[in-house]
Write a structure and sequence with these properties.
This protein has 429 residues and is mainly α. The chain has a domain of 87 residues. It is built from 14 helices and two strands, in the order H-H-H-H-H-H-H-H-H-H-H-H-E-E-H-H. It has a two-stranded antiparallel sheet with strand order 1-2.
Length: 429
């Protein structure tokens, strides 16, 4: 008897589900099943129901099974159903169906077999969002580590190059005390050398050929320059490997070092190509990819916090699933928008030849704590999308109100006073 004997609790979309029943009878049958599901939920949650409501629903269900439904019984049922829905609000029949395994309510072996394979929509959504969060977190960790390695190599190579230039200047001053050495001359000297390992020895050999005495300080400087050059050469090799790694990922575009004329370039030109390419990739990762992933992670974190509350309160429904899906989509957008709004102006991208030659505008000093504030803001923007859009709406409303006020003040000035009437001529008689 009841909804488990004649009416299945699962929904079907085809029109021939209930043969021999009119549309009104089909609607009434579905509503009777939904009403008993709500009554079951109220009993499980300890929600008190009026006796008249439950008695009316049960009498209507029995009358429907016996095909004795009258207009009075149907009218009483709909009023009781309305009262039941208001009592259980915000729990709805949609949320009950989304959180319960309705296959268990079917009788026979078929229901038992289907219940093992069937999972409610709430469990499916929880699994999907957990998988999305885990995938986002692992991708973010991998990209963050990849960015940190490249950023460290770029900064270290720049620092080593600056130290080599300073030590070369000191060594040249020690070896040629009578000849002043300017920074621009040193830059030209370093730029003209094709082998990095011969930079330190070239100045020492010049001093020996000119019969200048080689002091202990000069030997120490030469030794330091050699160590810095060896260290920088090792980091340049690692930077080239780092560039080739992301170059394989961009398979649809041929990189500069994969072209045929790359081998015809000098060693210094090859080093500069890898150095500049790495900085542009770091710029793209830190300004675009990382904020998007942080925003997506923040949105996923919000969904993972809110979803258990909805499941526990039986308020999760298809509308909640749609809202969470839209929230996941808004997270990356809010993350990159927050990154654009709160990121400081980037500094210059430097060359390896001197301290002052700059050829682009990319932030290299991004390893400090302050550099991660845009990423933290991107995470907060993904977690609280409403805050970002509230700020944007506030800015737009402020600008709009200001322009409206300006136009309102300008209107009285634009209105011209009506011309005064001309005096009438005196009539001549």
């Amino acid at each position: 008897m009841g909804i488990f004997s004649r009416r299945s609790t699962t929904r079907k979309t085809d029109g021939n589900t209930r043969q021999g029943l009119s549309i009104g009878s089909t609607i009434l049958a579905n509503s009777l099943a939904n009403a008993q599901l709500l009554m079951m939920t109220a009993a499980e949650r300890g929600i008190m129901l009026e006796n008249d409501v439950t008695r009316t629903i049960l009498n209507a269900n029995e009358a429907f099974d016996k095909n004795l439904v009258t207009p009075e019984i149907a009218n009483s049922f709909w009023q009781a159903y309305e009262t039941l829905s208001q009592t259980l609000s915000p729990i709805t029949i949609e949320s009950v169906r989304a959180n319960h395994d309705l296959q268990r309510l079917q009788t026979g072996n078929g229901g038992c077999l289907h219940s093992r394979k069937y999972a409610p929509m709430s469990l499916k959504s929880a699994f999907r969002y957990k998988l999305l969060s885990l995938t986002t977190l692992l991708s973010l960790i991998a990209l963050q580590v990849f960015w940190a390695i490249g950023n460290t190599l770029v900064i270290d190579i720049k620092e080593q190059s600056d130290r080599i230039i300073d030590l070369e200047a000191q060594l040249f001053t020690e070896s040629n005390p009578t000849i002043p050495m300017k920074g621009s001359d040193l830059a030209k000297r370093l730029a003209s050398s094709e082998e990095a390992d011969g930079e330190a020895s070239s100045l020492t050999n010049d001093a020996a050929q000119k019969n200048f005495p080689i002091s202990t300080n000069t030997q120490a400087l030469s030794r330091q320059i050699g160590e810095y050059i060896s260290w920088r050469s090792a980091e340049i090799i690692e930077l080239k490997n780092w560039n080739r790694l992301w170059g394989r990922l961009i398979f649809f575009s041929q990189q500069t070092w994969d072209k045929s004329d790359y081998e015809d370039l000098s060693m210094e030109a090859k080093t500069h190509i890898h150095y500049i390419s790495a900085q542009y990739v770091l710029h793209a990762i830190s300004n675009y990819f990382l904020p998007i992933l942080y925003g997506l992670l923040g949105a996923s974190f919000y969904v993972l916090r809110q979803l258990p509350k909805d499941i526990e309160n039986l308020t999760f429904s298809m509308n909640s699933h749609i809202d969470y899906g839209l929230r996941i989509t808004q997270g990356p957008l809010a993350g990159i928008m927050a990154s654009f709004f709160f990121t400081d102006a980037p500094s210059k991208l430097y060359s390896l030849t001197s301290h002052s030659s700059a050829i682009a505008t990319i932030n290299l000093e991004s390893s400090g704590l302050s550099s991660f504030s845009p990423l933290a803001i991107a995470f907060l923007a993904g977690y609280s999308v409403e805050l970002i859009f509230h700020v944007i709406d506030k800015i737009i409303s402020t600008v709009t109100n200001r322009s409206t006020t300006t136009v309102t003040k300008a209107d009285p000035q634009s209105v011209k006073a009506p011309p005064s009437p001309k005096p009438e001529r005196p009539s001549t008689t």
